[in-house]
Write a structure and sequence with these properties.
The chain is mainly beta and 638 residues long. The chain is built from 6 helices and 31 strands. The strands form 4 sheets. The chain has a 20-stranded antiparallel β-barrel. Strands 1-4-6 form a 3-stranded antiparallel sheet, with no helix packed on it. Strands 3-2-5 form a 3-stranded antiparallel sheet, with no helix packed on it.
């Protein structure tokens, strides 16, 4: 006969067995996310869930349910009485495609410090699927067949991009950062991390990573006229491995050999190390080049080490930039050079529990070696002098990300950085004739002012010093502004305004100022100066109009630029610009990138610039770098 002590022991053993068995069953449980529309009710065998807004409910996939449209009076009555009984706040989150800026960590804060027990991955259909409702699927036979024919991202590839680990405490900054990293992968349309509290162990949670692929195949290109165009088809998820394969075709009828070609192959994450590799080559119009790079960028606040190795080979008879102090400009002689670039960086948190504030220390070595070149002297053909540059940088950073939509994407989640950065740089340049030190600084600051808009301000300066004089002194500033997103009936509008100013003082070796990519598709050959001013204005107009499932957005752009061969305070300006309009076609269910067609007019033309250009491409435009901080640079190209 058992005594009381033995009975108590058996009771405790049975309880623990039940807990272990239940937790084992729960760990194997998979979940579905279900969207409940406004004025709809989801009913299970023991609960009722109401949808005030587009709400997301997370349920085990074994739970049976029905969704029915509710009457408004019934909703008001049931919500006042049954809501507290049946709806678990930890299992349901309000979701809407917010155009305001929302802090990325907000959803994860209630789970801070809880232990991550399991991490599962759920992939939704490329057509008809949704990370907000994993039960959505294609209904037509045609769409179903397209989903079956799509070779999706392999689960182990997604897993390699998950930085959070089981049996670790949930840190809101890191899990929201990880969601952003996966969403920024070139083959992912959208991603969302769901946190499921454990029903037995209150200090534990499960994490579901829901992803939706992009349609991987597309093209980009531009047409100036029938004599000049480029065509760049691509596959951004080659064989489901997440690799990018992009052949390139160029045509320019003004050359005796009018056809050029090139290509790119890149791997965004090698074996889960977050090391990237890319190989590029081009053979076109008196120019041959190829480039091999292996880099580990600082894509997250918690990455301690970063760096890169880059080798670049160029052979050409055409020089794109002119230098001021050359006594001879030679553009027809064939030259060849090798570039070597090595950098390494280390980040240190300022406070152990704060992942948003840290210091980054980086060191870079850059070498430019000419294999063949014209005759050089100290004051002749400076563009062909060999270069060796050592550059160090210390950076103070406070950065976090917010979510929004309708910046440049049609309703998809877009990640916007907030915070500040301040960098101090110092270095040394050694070439065939000079050895001179360098100092520079860079700062940026971002702020969202309610009802006014988003502002990002950047300022930078750098100079070499020789014989107590400044040489190649460059100063620049940029402001990026986005207005709040406004709805006018079925039309939504957001404005962007970007002024940029830059000047070079006492240039010697520094490449002359030009517009770079600040004026879209402008040929930069023979356009150079000491100072530039640019003003870019572009309203985006989103509509509910379209063709079938495709929604249409419009944009009007004015890229206005002025360049001077004199200093900023004594200018004589020449005007260049690109003015035009574009339309952008996006299918929210068929996850191909946005199809964009733009027509641009250039008022100031020369032999290399044509008055009109048509650009057509499949791409989702992004304004912000995914990197928290990159390699040290002598000058910042705004």
């Amino acid at each position: 006969m058992l005594n009381n002590k033995s009975l108590n022991f058996l009771k405790k053993a049975c309880i623990w067995m039940i807990i272990i068995v239940k937790s084992t069953l729960l760990s194997a449980q998979s979940y579905d996310t279900i969207t409940i529309r406004p004025n709809h009710v989801l009913i299970t065998i023991d609960s009722i869930y109401f949808g005030n807004t587009n709400s997301i409910l997370i349920l085990p996939d074994s739970v049976k349910y029905v969704i029915t449209k509710s009457f408004k009076k019934s909703v008001d009555f049931f919500q006042s009485y049954y809501y507290s009984l049946f709806i678990k706040d930890t299992a349901i989150q309000n979701f809407r495609a917010k155009e305001a800026f929302e802090k990325s960590v907000n959803y994860y804060e209630p789970f801070k410090g809880k232990i991550i027990r399991n991490i599962s991955i759920k992939q939704v259909d490329i057509i008809g699927g949704s990370v907000s409702d994993t039960l959505k699927f294609a209904k037509s036979k045609w769409n179903k067949s397209l989903n079956k024919s799509h070779l999706g991202s392999r689960k182990w590839i997604i897993k390699k991009n998950i930085r959070i680990k089981p049996n670790e405490a949930l840190i809101p900054t890191l899990i929201s950062d990880n969601e952003r990293i996966i969403r920024n992968l070139p083959y992912i349309e959208d991603a969302k991390f769901y946190v499921i509290p454990d029903s037995i162990f209150i200090d534990s949670v499960d994490v579901i990573v829901v992803t939706k692929d992009k349609f991987p195949i597309g093209f980009t290109g531009s047409v100036s006229n029938i004599q000049e165009f480029t065509m760049l088809p691509y596959n951004k998820n080659f064989l489901g491995f997440g690799h990018t394969l992009q052949p390139e075709i160029y045509y320019d009828g003004y050359y005796s050999n009018p056809i050029g070609y090139g290509g790119e192959y890149s791997i965004p994450n090698i074996a889960g190390s977050f090391i990237r590799s890319k190989f590029e080559f081009e053979n076109s119009f008196k120019k041959e080049q190829y480039k091999l790079s292996v880099t580990k960028p600082f894509i997250s606040n918690d990455i301690k080490y970063g760096g890169g190795l880059v080798y670049y080979r160029l052979s050409s008879s055409k020089k794109n930039y002119l230098y001021y102090n050359d006594t001879t400009i030679i553009t027809n002689n064939v030259y060849a050079k090798d570039d070597y670039n090595v950098w390494i960086g280390r980040s240190f948190k300022l406070k152990k529990s704060d992942y948003n504030k840290f210091i980054n220390i980086s060191l870079r070595y850059y070498a430019e070696r000419y294999v063949s070149r014209p005759t050089i002297r100290k004051d002749t053909n400076l563009i062909f002098h060999d270069n060796n540059i050592v550059l160090g940088r210390i950076t103070f950073i406070r950065k976090e990300h917010y979510k929004t939509s309708h910046l440049f994407g049609y309703g998809v989640t877009e990640d916007v950085p907030f915070g500040y950065t301040f960098s101090i740089l110092s270095g040394l340049q050694m070439n065939n004739y000079v050895c001179r030190p360098y100092v520079g600084a860079y700062a940026n600051w971002t702020k969202n002012i309610r009802r006014i808009g988003y502002f990002a301000y950047e300022i930078a300066g750098g100079t070499f010093v020789e014989n107590k004089q400044f040489e190649d002194l460059k100063l620049g500033s940029k402001i990026t502004y986005f207005s709040p997103y406004k709805k006018y009936g079925s039309i939504g509008v957001r404005h962007s305004l970007i002024p940029i100013i830059s000047t070079t003082i006492n240039p010697l070796y520094l490449e002359s100022e030009n517009f770079g990519k600040k004026i879209r598709e402008l040929d930069q050959e023979d356009i150079f100066g000491k100072s530039i001013m640019v003003l870019k204005y572009e309203p985006y107009i989103y509509s509910d109009f379209g063709m079938g499932k495709f929604k249409l957005a419009f944009s009007i752009f004015a890229d206005m630029g002025w360049i001077s061969k004199k200093a900023l305070w004594q200018p004589k300006w020449e005007h260049y610009g690109a003015y035009g309009f574009g339309f952008h076609l996006k299918n929210k269910r068929l996850t191909i990138p946005t199809f964009t067609v733009q027509l641009a007019y250039y008022p100031n033309v020369n032999d290399t610039n044509k008055p009109f250009n048509i650009l057509a491409r499949f791409s989702d435009r992004k304004l912000f770098d995914e990197e928290i901080i990159g390699e040290p640079e002598l000058y910042f190209d705004f």
